[in-house]
Amino acid sequence: MSPAQVGSRRLTVDFFTHSHRISTQFLVRGRPLVDTLNDHTLSYIELDLAYVSRIDKPGDLVADYAISILRKENVSFCVVAAQIELALKAVPQAQYLSRRSRHAFCTVPSFEIAGQIDVSGALDLHKMMAIGTERFMPIYKATATISLLQSVSFSGELILVNKERIQVFCVSDAPAAATAPQGSR
């Protein structure tokens, strides 16, 4: 989707720090969410609406404000339930066809995240974890589970993970369709 098509639309996003969940209707202003997150010229994200809850009690609001600001360095990951075309850049068809999905697992403070990543060419974890201009990495059809409270999890079509917050990152060596279900060995 081009920037002109993105326009000024709202995207439902849950941002997670190590202790809180910030639910919002993020105003996409002419560029996908991942571009805003990866923009190194700003260290924060402006939120028009923010509903704040603790990660262990996501249904109990601690605060809600019409105007908020969120420091990007403290975002461990964000969950996009739907409309991922507002969250990611369009991938050229030639690149898309050369990609293979693989099961992935990573940990960030207080969470375990499992889902699928797209890999083009040979699997190179060093290259994938390099920060460069891409601080946030997409994991598709993903679930984030609280490490110490396995009964609480958050799922979405897409989770954007802050590479600087990743503690361990694991990828299966076989394509996702040929791999055993997550957690099995």
Shape: globular
The quaternary state of the protein chains shown equals: single chain
Low-confidence stretches: 1-6, 92-96, 178-185
Q: Helices and strands: which structural class?
A: mainly beta
Distance between the termini: 38 Å
Percent strand equals: over 45%
Q: Strand sequence of the main sheet, in spatial order?
A: 5-4-2-1-7-11-10-9-8-12
Total separate domains: 2
Largest sheet: 10 strands, antiparallel
Radius of gyration: 16 Å
CATH architecture designation of the largest domain: Roll
Residues in helix, %: 10-25%
CATH topology of the largest domain: SH3 type barrels
Summed over residues and divided by their number, the pLDDT gives a mean of 85
Number of helices: 4
- Provide the succession of SSEs: HEEHEEEEEHEEHEEE
Secondary structure layout plus pairing:
Blueprint: H1 3-6, E1 8-16, E2 20-29, H2 33-38, E3 44-47, E4 50-54, E5 57-65, E6 68-71, E7 77-80, H3 93-97, E8 99-108, E9 111-120, H4 125-129, E10 136-146, E11 149-162, E12 168-171
Antiparallel strand pairs: 1-2, 1-7, 2-4, 3-6, 4-5, 7-11, 8-9, 8-12, 9-10, 10-11
